[in-house]
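Run log // design_07
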């Protein structure tokens, strides 16, 4: 039976090759890259299912590798494994789309479980994308793709089909400013990161913030065209974030997406300037339609 393919990227050769041997004994198939440049070359010839990536390396640093991977191969999950990073590095890695951030020395069993979780999320994002395109697939393939620990060959068929569809739909979003930039703000991490990957497969630049404070901080550095915003989050609530965004950055269009709102919340949100108010669970086509309309408004106003 085929195994989950893992690319280990670390310049500490003895460490990373020992790690590869131990992972291979845990029913994974490991490949080693000793630099960021080597890792990116391998993506074009033998793409892995999951990347485990160090941050500090000679030449291209881990953050740059992560950014390149999530830009060009958004379906590939990246786990940061580092002995040098701190809170700021973890925050930046998660913003760029890292699946998880793990400090060295890492427990092997925990790391293997994280790799399996990352692979399952890739499959789920691919399946959802296929559904969005109206492309059905066999029930047995669905079962195989969902199987824990899996049947990776069958799961990769789902992934490859999704990637082919994604290539066909790239650059179809409107707007004179190019591909839309979207900021997703939600404290449900699995939900929001899967949503970001589904948007990235449509060639939309998607960043993630897990709370209101983080979202407002990110706006100080780079404005998105559209913000998709949850209402109920720890700390600053969505309505407060909405009010701050519309007062400071009026060209940013805000779509409320919530599972906890009420008619009163909807009325307040629209009064504060929300572009649209949607409820979870949302049909992805409905969300994309609102994102496209909001993006047109944002790029026209900007």
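design_07 sequence
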């Amino acid at each position: 039976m085929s195994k989950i393919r893992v690319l280990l990227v670390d310049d500490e050769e003895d460490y990373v090759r020992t790690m590869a041997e131990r992972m291979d004994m845990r029913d994974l198939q490991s490949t080693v890259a000793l630099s960021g440049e080597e890792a990116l070359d391998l993506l074009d010839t033998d793409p892995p299912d999951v990347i485990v990536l160090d941050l500090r390396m000679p030449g291209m640093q881990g953050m740059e590798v992560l950014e390149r991977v999530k830009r060009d191969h958004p379906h590939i999950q990246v786990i940061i494994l580092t002995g040098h990073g701190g809170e700021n590095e973890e925050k930046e890695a998660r913003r760029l789309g890292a699946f998880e951030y793990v400090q060295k020395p890492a427990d092997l069993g925990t790391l293997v479980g994280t790799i399996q979780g990352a692979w399952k999320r890739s499959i789920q994002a691919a399946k959802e994308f296929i559904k969005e395109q109206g492309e059905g697939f066999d029930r047995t393939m669905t079962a195989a793709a969902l199987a824990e620990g899996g049947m990776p060959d069958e799961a990769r068929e789902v992934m490859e089909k999704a990637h082919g569809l994604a290539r066909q739909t790239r650059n179809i979003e409107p707007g004179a400013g190019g591909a839309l930039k979207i900021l997703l703000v939600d404290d449900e991490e699995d939900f929001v990161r899967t949503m970001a990957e589904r948007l990235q497969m449509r060639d939309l630049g998607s960043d993630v913030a897990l709370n209101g404070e983080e979202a407002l901080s990110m706006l100080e550095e780079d404005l998105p065209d559209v913000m998709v915003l949850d209402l109920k989050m720890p700390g600053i609530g969505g309505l407060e974030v909405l009010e701050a965004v519309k007062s400071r950055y009026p060209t940013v269009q805000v779509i409320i997406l919530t599972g906890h709102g009420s008619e009163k919340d909807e009325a307040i949100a629209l009064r504060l300037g929300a572009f649209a108010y949607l409820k979870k669970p949302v049909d992805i086509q409905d969300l994309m339609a609102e994102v496209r309309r909001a993006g047109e408004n944002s790029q026209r106003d900007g």
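The domain at 1-169 is CATH 3.40.50.2300 (Rossmann fold).
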